[in-house]
Amino acid sequence: MSSPLLPAFLAPLLFGLGTVASKALLADIPPVLLAGLLYLGSGVGLGSVWLWRARAGKSGSPLAAPDAPWLAGAILCGGVAGPVLLMWGLSRTSASTASLLLNLETCFTALLAWTLFRERGTLRLAAGVGLAFAGASVLSWPEGGSWGDARLEGSLLVAAACLAWGFDNNLSQRISGKDPVAIAALKGLIAGVVNTAWAFGMGAAVPDAGHVGKACALGFVSYGLSLVCFILSLRNVGAARTGLYFALAPFVGAAGGLLFLGEPVTGRLLAAAALMAGGVWLGHERR
């Protein structure tokens, strides 16, 4: 693999495997607290990167006052609501199912762009969104028609996380010309503090130092370094190809759940993966 392509493949690998590792950490850390620690790790790590770049004179365009509403909305949706909903969903469903459902983020991003932010769509993209939603329905459909089962609850929570990140993506697009490392660092620090305080306010116990360290390190790698690789890929190979490669992240997470957590391979999972893979292929048109 040539060096320009390395970040393009590292970004989905780090993010996808982060879902699997988060599922494992939920055995020792409550969902809201884990979301806070993940983003604190990302924020502190990327904040250090931003400071180093600023001292070296390599920082990007600074944020300004008119950017504040867009940044605040992105932090609320993508930094506070999204990760908490995902951790709640992961606590109720398997890592492989949750990972595949993360394909809905692309769908919600597109739907919101068309309906609220007045961007143009295509028939092929609409068909891709439809296939991805069909795959999500296959994953979420309750066993025996029982609509109160934990898997359905978990699937709906993951879908809600994807909706939150869809808003985040559209809001962040409005300030995408500004320094992305600074934006991600602020999002991580603010969201991490808010979610951690929220968890303690609900009575969460302080985990031992080892679990805190693991969660923060995972956040820096899965959210922080993944974002850095994503940005490098945008610079090296362009937005279209970067988006195509990053669509591998849900499938990496699903494979990780099967390989590392011993989750079963089912017909439902395979059917959903096929539908979502078709949706991803349709949704990434050649330009």
Indicate the topology.
Blueprint: H1 6-25, H2 31-55, H3 68-90, H4 95-101, H5 104-115, H6 123-140, H7 150-173, H8 180-201, H9 209-237, H10 239-246, H11 249-260, H12 267-283
Helix pairs in contact: 1-4, 1-9, 1-10, 1-11, 2-3, 2-8, 2-9, 3-7, 3-8, 4-11, 5-6, 5-7, 6-12, 8-9, 9-10
Write structural notes for this entry:
The chain is mainly alpha-helical and 287 residues long. It has one domain (3-283). Helices cover 76% and strands 0% of the residues. It contains twelve helices and no strands. The chain has helices at 6-25, 31-55, 68-90, 95-101, 104-115, 123-140, 150-173, 180-201, 209-237, 239-246, 249-260, 267-283. α1 (6-25) crosses α4 and α3 runs antiparallel to α7. The chain is globular. It starts with 5 loop residues before the first helix and ends with a helix. 49% of the residues are buried. The mean pLDDT is 83.
Domain module count: 1
> What's the pLDDT, averaged over the residues?
83
Largest sheet: none
**From N to C, what is the helix and strand string?**
HHHHHHHHHHHH
Binned strand content: under 5%
Rg, Å, rounded: 18 Å
> Can you tell me the residue ranges where pLDDT is under 50 for at least 5 consecutive residues?
none
The helicity comes to over 70%
Treating each run of at least 4 consecutive H or I residues as one helix, how many helices?
12
